[in-house]
Amino acid sequence: MSTSQEKALSPLAAAPLAERTATLEVASTASTVEVPYSVYKPWEKWLIVVLTSLAAMFSPLSSNVYFPAIPVIATAFNTSIERINITITVYMFLQGLSPAVWSGLADSARCGRRPVYLACLGLLSLSCVGLALTPETAYWLLVLLRCLQAAGCASVIALSSGTIMDIAASGERGIFLGVSSLGAMFGPCIGPVIGGVLAGKYGWRAIFWFLLAASASCFLLELLFLPETLRAVVGDGSIPAPKWDRPLLPLLGRGRRDGREEGKRPEPGRRNGPLDFVRLFGNVDVCLILWTNGVSFTMFYCIQTTLSPLFLIAYPYLSETEIGLCYLASGAGCILGAPLSGRILDIAWAREERRVKRHGGEIRVEHARLSSSPAYWGTYVAVLVAYGWCVDRGVSVAVTLVLQFLATCMTMCIFTVNQTLLMDLFPGRGSSVGAANNIVRCLLGAVVISIIDFVRLAIGPGWTFTALGIWCLLTYPLVVIEWKYGARWAAQRKSP
């Protein structure tokens, strides 16, 4: 090979193996023909992202739509609110643990993504039927069915991360993940509004009939249109999935050539078990990223769970319906934060690729992904402290809603950065990465939420959110450590 050919291929050789664009060398002209990472057209990728985002919405939606009905359900079952709160605790516990089982199956070539999507949504729909028909004398059945509901819907967030890893290369992954996260974050914002309206007008059972109609509709959409994307099964999408694993209406990817005719094979898969995600915790960089992501989400949970009691005290002129509408400020933060941070990630990745083409070397994954983190964390700390004291002093509700909007926006930005970085570091394990992220986020959030109300009553909202802001400030050095040493840990992991 000539010197000019070697120089032309050097940036490609430096790129991580899992993210290289397949290249065919033409010796006579030293030119290359790039083969796309996935055969899906841009509009097909976006449609797949929309389908997975809709499915991912049900985990937080099923949890948060339930909150406004707690007093009504306690009265209906002739029990205390504390006992009804047990159904929330078990829900969050299963919400954290169930992806551990489903994610291993979704990353396995023996199963794939699509069957797990359908199984999760099917289990969610059936549990909603049971909950809507639960006798008011069977409290134990309410607890059991809430566990099944969580086991069905909680895993889809992890699945959506794996699907994006299948169809999108690193340079476009940020924006797709950001938009996909909208479903997971929008649920906590619209859930209380929907739950309050349904429980107030039609009774608590209407909540579960609503969830049944929504989840069954989503199940039908996935059944009809969602293709199998696991690269260990379909490669870049050009290899047909087994007949039992195909959509009923195969509209996506119809124009592609049959990869089997071209001699293509599925990409080598890993042997994944139900607890495959546990191995991820043996990596220092993973633990750092998961902890920082869990802390940022815990702040979001604290704002959401304390909003109603805090606003009732600070703004007594607001009605219950108006307080429910205040959650929409968080929804607006999701809508802005997710795609904005995703687009910034893609721009940073393109800038890093240009640096490699000019100067050679390898793509610095951690630098490309974490370059915007200082702005996000700095803003988050300031917003948390300001939010707590504004509520404490009864400052205009418009100001507190703006701060709530900014807090949610920063939560989404931090999540998108961390999740995208994890997907880059562990190609082919998207669902397992999502499961590990989910378990840390949910369990840490459950612990803090269980005590946040006692802290708020003891020291007031101002000092409570100041303490949370300080916690974020003390967490940020972990991001700096990952920035500095992450590449070294990743290299050690790849070395034999």
Automatic annotation (TrEMBL):
A matching Pfam family: MFS_1
Subcellular localization(s) per the UniProt record: Membrane
GO molecular function: citrate transmembrane transporter activity
Basic and acidic residues compositional bias, start-end: 255-270
The keyword Membrane is assigned to this record: yes
Boundaries of every Major facilitator superfamily (MFS) profile domain copy: 48-484
Gene Ontology terms describing biological process: export across plasma membrane
Transmembrane residue ranges: 46-66, 86-104, 116-133, 139-162, 174-194, 206-226, 288-315, 327-349, 370-389, 395-417, 438-459, 465-485
Gene Ontology cellular component annotations, sorted alphabetically: plasma membrane
Topology in the lipid bilayer: Multi-pass membrane protein
Domain of life: Eukaryota
Name used for this protein in its record: MFS general substrate transporter
